[in-house]
RNA sequence: GGUGAGCUGGCCGAGUGGUCGAAGGCACUUCCCUGCUAAGGAAGCAUAUGGGCUUAAACCUGUAUCGAGGGUUCGAAUCCCUCGCUCACCGCCA
């Protein structure tokens, strides 16, 4: 959520910055709501003040044993007017909140301006795509004889589900293990195990709700709903909801390996083959909760933490700075890591690292006490370190051999019982 | 699922209808004293939001907030209802 004060004070500038990310801020509606709010709020609070003062007088009079009926008569008529005013105020404030909750974050000044993914800016490349002297297969064809089984996934659950068995299942686990061990042992993150189902408030906190309900899976629970997490960014970041963190505990660095559940509504027909786009996929997530002054340094650091995995796996990739039009709802700045997929002859997203600045923290009321002792909003960052399924795809495609086998990257061999190759 | 007890400021904890946004303690900030890895004294110290004022901060002031929502009342931390959560015991259970 944006700072409403900033909107009031500097509306035109913010509208322009939001336009850069293809968001049309309803400025007229906002101004009208604000004008109404001001009138109603003043009126309501005046009535409340009147009532409070009178009630206090009644209390004083009664404690002295005096007759309070005169004052009582005076406030008698207030009740209905006050109730109506309060109801109206609630309604306007709720409308303003809904409006605010649907406004995306402001892009940082360093974010390239652009309309869509074609205008993202490549920052650097690492590694050279391998030259193949045979016809490359995609991961689905490479993995099929080894236990990568889309038919069984479809039988059990439908499209966009994968069943893995044998050495593919083990490789998948090995990849996750390597990621988790690297982030905890080398990069200082604390390993977490989190719920996979969360309540509505949690998703509002990180910005998935109320705007993106259709992207989530949910299930009825009591009189309400629980939602399957679309990423453990949700659970890790919400650990600081309604907290005031001590300065000396910053930065907070958390990681978790969890499944992620996404309805992929609106992506029909895209990436239909293979396990690029699934309703359920595993991800090792990194979250940092930091002092505002440090958030951009943390962003660069986290990109490095994600890159370290790709480098350990010897997978060629590039780092891309997303343009204003391609960034996610809560991000002020995002880098994507794109891994080379030889079968697609292109780089594909495998990690996304974002600085949300105070956008999530404001919703979460996640704060720290600054040098003056005043609570101040934290900055939150999240990034994949990395998507496990897509990493499996990249390993299979980049390391395939002419005979159909797949060499196992050195970094994964300890997790595969010393095995160096997946054979048919 | 059943029964019982709880949920108060950064933390602990008092407060069962009226000068309560809330005693006391801890922590923190400033000052004083002391001169030593400590103790004592004084003051300040919840959050959000509106308005005044303002470059801003500070300050003044209104309102709301004592798990959440609703109700009773001129007035609710306090009474009533619903829900959530925590703890204990019982039942069931991977």
Keywords:
serine-tRNA ligase activity, alpha+beta, 424 residues, RNA-binding, elongated, single chain, 3-stranded antiparallel sheet, 8-stranded mixed sheet
What do you see in this structure?
- With 424 residues, the chain is of the alpha+beta class.
- 39% of the residues lie in helices and 21% in strands.
- The protein has 13 helices and 18 strands.
- It has an 8-stranded mixed β-sheet. Strands 5-7-6 form a 3-stranded antiparallel β-sheet.
- A hairpin with a 5-residue loop joins β14 and β15.
- α3 runs antiparallel to α4 and α8 crosses α13.
- It is elongated and about 100 Å long.
- The structure holds one RNA strand of 94 nucleotides.
Summed up:
The chain has 13 helices and 18 strands. By secondary structure, it is an alpha+beta fold.
- Extract low-pLDDT stretches: none
Structural class estimated from helices and strands: alpha+beta
Strand content: 15-25%
Discrete helix count: 13
Q: Rg, please?
A: 27 Å
General shape: elongated
Instruction: Tell me the number of strands.
Output: 18
Strand ordering within the main sheet? 1-11-12-13-16-10-9-4
| Helix share bin | 25-40%
Distance between the termini: 52 Å
SSE order and pairing:
Elements: H1 4-9, H2 11-19, H3 27-63, H4 69-76, H5 78-101, E1 121-126, H6 139-143, E2 148-149, H7 150-156, E3 163-164, H8 166-186, E4 190-192, E5 197-198, H9 200-206, E6 218-221, E7 224-228, H10 233-237, E8 244-245, E9 252-261, E10 280-290, H11 295-312, E11 317-321, E12 333-341, E13 346-355, H12 359-364, E14 367-369, E15 375-377, E16 379-387, H13 388-398, E17 406-407, E18 421-422
Parallel strand pairs: 4-9, 8-14
Antiparallel strand pairs: 1-11, 2-3, 5-7, 6-7, 9-10, 10-16, 11-12, 12-13, 13-16, 14-15, 17-18
Helix pairs in contact: 3-4, 3-5, 8-13
The structure holds one RNA strand of 94 nucleotides.
């Amino acid at each position: 959520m944006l700072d409403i004060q900033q909107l009031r004070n500097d509306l035109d500038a913010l509208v322009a910055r939001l336009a850069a990310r293809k968001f049309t801020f309803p400025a007229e509606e906002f101004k009208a709501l604000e004008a109404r709010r001001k009138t109603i709020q003043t009126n309501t609070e005046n009535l409340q003040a009147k009532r409070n003062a009178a009630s206090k007088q009644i209390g004083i009079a009664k404690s002295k044993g005096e007759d309070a009926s005169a004052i009582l008569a005076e406030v008698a008529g207030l009740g209905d007017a006050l109730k109506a005013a309060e109801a109206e105020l609630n309604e306007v404030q709720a409308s303003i909140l809904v409006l605010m909750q649907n406004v995306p974050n402001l892009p940082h000044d360093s974010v390239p301006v652009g309309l869509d993914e074609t205008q993202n800016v490549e920052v650097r490349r690492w590694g050279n795509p391998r030259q193949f002297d045979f016809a490359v297969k995609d991961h689905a064809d490479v993995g099929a004889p080894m236990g990568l089984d889309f038919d069984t996934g479809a039988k059990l659950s439908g499209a966009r589900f994968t069943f893995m068995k044998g050495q593919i299942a083990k490789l998948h686990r090995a990849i996750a293990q390597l990621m988790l061990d690297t982030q905890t042992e080398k990069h200082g993150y604390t390993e977490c195990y989190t719920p996979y189902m969360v309540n509505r408030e949690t998703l509002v906190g990180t910005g998935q709700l109320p705007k993106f309900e259709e992207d989530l899976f949910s299930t009825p629970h009591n009189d309400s709903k629980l939602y399957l997490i679309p990423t453990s960014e949700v659970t890790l970041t919400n650990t600081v909801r309604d907290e005031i963190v001590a300065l000396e505990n910053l930065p907070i660095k958390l990681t978790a390996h969890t499944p992620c559940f996404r309805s992929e509504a609106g992506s029909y027909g895209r990436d239909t083959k293979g396990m690029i786009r699934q309703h359920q996929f595993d991800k090792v997530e990194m979250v940092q909760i930091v002092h505002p002054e440090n958030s951009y340094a943390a962003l660069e650091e986290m990109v490095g933490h994600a890159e370290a995995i790709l480098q350990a796996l010897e997978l060629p990739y590039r780092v891309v700075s997303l343009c204003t039009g391609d960034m996610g709802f809560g991000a002020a700045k995002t880098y994507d890591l794109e891994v080379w997929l030889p079968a697609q002859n292109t780089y594909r997203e495998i990690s996304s690292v974002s600085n949300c600045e105070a956008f999530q923290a404001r919703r979460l009321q996640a704060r720290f006490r600054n040098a003056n002792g005043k609570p101040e909003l934290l900055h939150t960052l999240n990034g994949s370190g990395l998507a496990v399924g897509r990493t499996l795809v990249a390993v299979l495609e980049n390391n395939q051999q002419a005979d159909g086998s797949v060499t196992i990257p050195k970094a994964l061999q300890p997790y595969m019982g010393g095995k160096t190759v997946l054979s048919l």
